[in-house]
Amino acid sequence: MSVDTKDHRITIRELQRNAADVFDRAGRGESFTVTRRGVTVGRVLPPDEAEEALTAAVDRGLIDPHDLDDLPTAGEAVGMVREESPPGSRLATDALAELRAAEDER
């Protein structure tokens, strides 16, 4: 899917008249700044892929939403010190790559 990264400026009236088209285009990756008398009053953004994936995982029962409450926010995670893995353990990324490779073979 080709994503248009240009932000379009539209008036509230244009949004009201063309809401279905604006939201269809947002679903394809475009974003819109909504204005009233030249002043920004809102934005219409494409869906966030990470948020959609997380919502799908919760909906499928893979993640308990209550467990998410204890996780750090992105801002908090920036300052966190990474803990070293015990010697001889494999990285989670390696384990995930192996699981994905096994799924691809099926």
Description of the molecule:
With 106 residues, this protein is α+β, with helices and mostly antiparallel strands. It is built from 6 helices and 3 strands. Strands 1-2-3 form a 3-stranded mixed β-sheet. A hairpin with a 2-residue loop joins strand 2 and strand 3.
- Helix content, binned percent: 40-55%
The structural class is: alpha+beta
| Strand element count | 3
Gyration radius over CA: 21 Å
Record the strand order, biggest sheet: 1-2-3
Query: What is the terminal separation in angstroms?
Result: 27 Å
In round numbers, the mean pLDDT is: 88
Shape: elongated
- Major sheet: size, sense and barrel closure? 3 strands, mixed
Low-confidence stretches: none
The number of distinct helices, counting runs of at least 4 residues, comes to 6
Beta-strand residue percentage: 15-25%
Q: What is the H/E string?
A: EHHEEHHHH
Summary, kept brief:
This protein has 106 residues and is an alpha+beta fold. The protein is built from six helices and three strands, in the order βααββαααα.
Keywords:
elongated; alpha+beta; three-stranded mixed sheet; 106 residues; 3 strands
